[in-house]
Amino acid sequence: MDVQTGWRPPLAKITKPQGGLAGLTARPRLIRMLEQGASCRLVTVCAPAGYGKTTLLRQWAEQAGRPVAWLSLDEADDDAPRFWRLVAFALSQALPPNSLRRSLPLSSALPSLSVSAFLDALIGELAEAGGRIVLVLDDIHLIRDAGILEPLGYWLRYLPPGVAVVAAGRSAPRVGGSRWAAEGKRLDLSAAEIAFTEDEAGAYLDAAFPGTFTPAQQLRLHQATEGWAAGLQLSGLSGAASLGLEAGGEELAAFLMEEAYGRLPDELKQFLLRSALPERIDSELAAAAAGCGREEAEALLGRVRRDSLFLLPSGADGWHRYHALFRGFLLRRPELSDFSRRDALQRCALELDRRGLAAEAIGCALSAGDGKWSSDKLDAFAAQALRQGEGRSLLGLLERLAELRELTAEQQLLQAYLLAVGGSFEAAGAAMAGARRIAERLEPGQERSRLSSGLLFVESNRIFFGGRFELWQQLADRAGRELLPAEGMYFNVDFNRSEPQVRRADIGMKGVLSPDTEAIGRQFAGMLDEGGWGGSLVSLYVRLALAEGYFEWNRLEECRTLLAGVQQDRSARLTAGLAVPAAILQAQLDAADGKLDAALNELLAAERLEAALEPQWQAGLIAARARLLLQAGQPAAAGKALASLGLPGKEPPAYHREFELMTLVRLLLSQRRLERALRLLDALERLQRREGLVSGLAETAALRALAEQGRGRQTEALRAIGQALAIGEANGYVRLFVAEGAPMRKLLAAFRARADGPPSGSEPRSAYVERLLGAFDYAPPRVLEAAAPLAEPLTEQELILLRHLADGAANREIADSLGLTPGTVRVYLSRLYAKLGVASRLQAVHAAQELRLLRGS
């Protein structure tokens, strides 16, 4: 109580609040971070409204193990005397009685007493109290008076050891800055750090809305809300399992109106409404959207950041974007007239076009309803988009343009081509029909001839990607070189933007191999050579896909010849979708020849290629290197390589990481973690079926068979290998089986030897199984039998330990034999396991046998 006036603040302002947003879910990840940061002078928790800042701090305070003083701030507290009185009352509430017997009376003398005198007294009494205490200042963004913030910096600088301040709000006080952070005196938690992870979101939804959302729906909710706690809660309340920008519905709009948008000045509202029109902004684009100068736009963006209005970083170079749900709210606001919206979007389109960002420029113009400008720019952009592998983006722009105006014949032809290579054959046929009608209205001449040539080419693609190879052959025999389009942009399409092997991509038919695909590939490559397009990207992709097919068929000389031709081409070295698969294929050839060092060096060199620096290419090369290390019997080195990829744990696997995850399955098999490997295979198989990845389905069945064999479930192992062989025989796969080494050879021999036929499915022909077993005889033993040397050789003592393990000796027996203590034996064994890349005695003995480290093995 104020001794002069009898005033004391409402108890709710100076005590820890109860309940709170998303309060059902503990956040141990963040609790640990706060506990570690409590040794700092200042911890800030800064994020927009609804991120669960207060709830997080309440949860932490309940288990902090020390007194926590709490001050909930509001706008009226942005007054220096009132603020410091509240601080004194909050601290006295958490400290032993009479701890602030001088400071509390002095606080009532403010402002006639200087703030410095009061703070000196407060610092002294906190030091005398001698305990560890934390003061939470909640909603610190409401405090903007320099007469508070400057003394706050002084107070924090001289706080006694063990006393800390945690400031939570939409913006953080500018105190201490980077120097304090570097000295370990300040810790800052941002929105990105306190956002719910996928696991946390799932746990919250399960607790708050039990039985309402499936795991897949929980994942989509997390993606739509980007871990924003209020978005999760309001979407859950509205049952928005379909998600999109409508997640949370009217409840979300009301929350944003009350907590973020409704209280803003009109100038800032208008800026938000305009700057949210493009998908991302920087200061120049924001200026174009708002129709103001760059300096004014930078100042307004500064206010947006200061008020934490859901502005998130979007890549480098100063680009930002609004949170998807907040942007959706802004785009639906009625305050901006249609004319103002169109005007702002057209200015954005011109600014983006000036900076060479064609796809975004066209998108803004389409949103403004400007079909003519969009159409002209799209025609100019098409060749660049195909060259850069932006086919999906281009197709989306064409579909949006078609809503504004009729596409030209060339645009419909391009649309049909993109649909055909993407597997939408019926839609491709409809687009071709439109182009054909336009062509038929033209007078005979060059333009009609160009259109007819393009129609023939697109039809050939529709037939090929639809798997109707006989029809393609008939068409090619009839048309010859006329099958090639007159439009040059179709020859330099970058077909591969992420796959480490071309035959996994659409142009590689997702792993389908047959005499037809070989014949068509060779014939089409020859036609391209004759037409002068032998160095085009299309030609290079066709030849590399053929080379990969020859490797899989074990026709290694033909593979080497084709691959050498691709590698000599400059375009292939500069195009990641060619350079990375070519390096992986070369490494596979080297490994097949027993040149493991050369194979690993090939992949390491590829990781340094300028064309391969993007994360997806690095991940593919690292996974390919890990596969070779596993084949060479070096699971520890393989595990270390895979660890750098940050592969997902509990969350559902994503298809774009399938190649890496299939490598992880092999590591798990080598570690005898068979149950986890099988669970991962189940999830991957669903993705492979959805995407139609034929080679992946065969690979999954083969690895499942090895896992079941490792569990001693021979019937299940034979059933799975029968499924792999059925796909393998249909496509002539050989290396897929040979690469798995001795365990696969043993399994194939067991399949051949059984008398009662496979438990289910069709019986692969015995000749195919015999051919596979024969291929193992020509595989180099170094890869097959895992006889490569360890990265770190074993000592003589470790070899002796191995022999004791092989004899089944217990730790006590080993200790007595070697004159050691059992504890020392355990230490030596842990070092031995690390070198071998194993986790148990059994695995160590097995690895030693494979590496021929034991006498007689």
Strand order of the largest sheet: 2-3-4-1-5
The amount of helix comes to 55-70%
Hey, roughly how much beta strand do the residues contain? under 5%
pLDDT averaged residue by residue: 85
Q: Tell the overall outline.
A: flat
What's the total number of strands?
A: 7
Kindly name the structural category. Answer: mainly alpha
Unreliable segments of 5+ consecutive residues: 241-245, 779-788
- SS field, number of helical segments: 44
Query: What value does the Rg take, in angstroms?
Result: 33 Å
Ends apart, CA distance between termini? 85 Å
Major sheet description: 5 strands, parallel
Can you give a write-up of this model?
- With 857 residues, this protein is mainly alpha-helical.
- The chain is built from 44 helices and seven strands.
- Strands 2-3-4-1-5 form a five-stranded parallel sheet, with helices on both faces.
- Helix 21 runs antiparallel to helix 22 (425-441) and helix 32 runs antiparallel to helix 33 (658-670).
Provide a compact summary of the structure.
With 857 residues, this protein is mainly alpha-helical.
